[in-house]
Amino acid sequence: MREVAIVAFAQSDHRPDTSDVSEVEMLMPVLRRVLDDVGLTAGEVGFTCSGSCDYLAGRAFSFTMALDGVGAWPPISESHVEMDGAWALYEAWTKLLTGDADTALVYSYGKSSPGDLREVLTRQLDPYYLAPLWPDSVSLAALQAQALIDAGETDERSLAGVAHRSRTAAEANPHAQLSGSVPPGRLLDTPYLVHPLRRHDCPPIGDGAAAVVLAAGDTARGLCPRPAWIRGIDHRVEPHALGVRDLTRSPSTRLAAERAGAFDAPVDTAELHAPFTSQEVLLRRELRLGADVRVNPSGGALAANPMMAAGLIRLGEAAAAIHRGGSDRALAHATSGPCLQQNLVAVLEGEPS
Known about the structure:
Elements: E1 4-11, H1 23-38, E2 47-51, H2 54-57, H3 63-66, E3 78-81, H4 85-97, E4 103-111, H5 117-120, H6 137-150, H7 156-169, H8 184-187, E5 192-194, E6 197-198, E7 207-216, H9 217-223, E8 228-237, H10 251-260, E9 269-271, H11 277-286, E10 294-295, H12 310-323, E11 329-336, E12 342-349
Parallel strand pairs: 2-3, 2-4, 9-10, 9-11
Antiparallel strand pairs: 1-7, 1-8, 4-7, 5-6, 8-12, 11-12
């Protein structure tokens, strides 16, 4: 199979409100940086794929406006997914595997600040049984967290420890929306947002964008001193109806990891798209991540969770760790939907120094 690697990654500074800029203005600096890193222009890229959500923008086909950030001339080969940018990367990866292109630009963005995100995300739910009840994303995550606590998989102090570690790690991430944390004991003194979740157990709501460049074979080696080779990638989905799922398990994550080859050899770094602390506990178990694995050294989604871009950022952060020599074999995970409904897992490797 043709070798494909992530050769460049860039992201915006994630902010709670970007009403002062449009999606195009938010995207353009990110696209410029990621292309400059590999010395390419948009017209020289073989394929372009984006991920976004019209529900966030409040208008149909909003992604066509964002193409202004790429450039209207010369004409490009382009596609779009109504998903997190991690799934746009999956489409671009398959495009490069076919040999139709040697390079690909993948980008995604989301502006949650114009509306009520918790209300918007109810539109993901089953329209007959769940959506009419209007359960919001935090309340559903709280049900999952309580199920994990009742099953003896975690407790509130452990969840506070996840939040403390993630947001402390984010102090080294200049793009994070939140960073720094008081000790776990003091976090437990704060009020509940939705029992058993407190504010620190939940992701910040904010706006942001990210982009990566993919390249195949010798092209990748010519563009990047140490490419992050995609050794395996797979995505799976749980049943739409939450009532038929065991919320303390994630078989789709486990299956995607198996098909991606995550269990074939140890990983040293894992970037997990776990917007809630309880979800990191679940993902760690399903992905068999031991205490020796660095989990979310970037701070993860608890530090910055721009809708439609946070999953792509996990892939980008894992690749960036390989680029700079901080990792040799990394796992990246992205999710979409309530309670880890859809899950994508990728395994990235760097060549020996």
